[in-house]
Amino acid sequence: MNATAAILTRTWSVGARTCTLTVPRPKRGKPVHACIEWSPSVPLSLSAAEWAQYRAGRDAAMVDLARVVRGKAAVLSACNERSEAP
Questions:
Q1: What pLDDT, on a 0 to 100 scale, did the predictor assign at position 80?
Q2: Global pTM?
């Protein structure tokens, strides 16, 4: 995603990784699709603590997005948020 066209970019830590959420400038009346990039790599699984870190960062970014667009923001997730047992 082109960060110069973004209306919101937020970065947070998840364990040893970093997540960056980028939201492009919305077109009037159209839904917006955010992109989350993981560095240095996308994890194959997350511990319960890492899921909590991920969700806290994602949810804070959604609150910021709602403020920026002066509306509502929602998360639709297609992943399985089950954590692995330690």
A1: 58
A2: 0.75
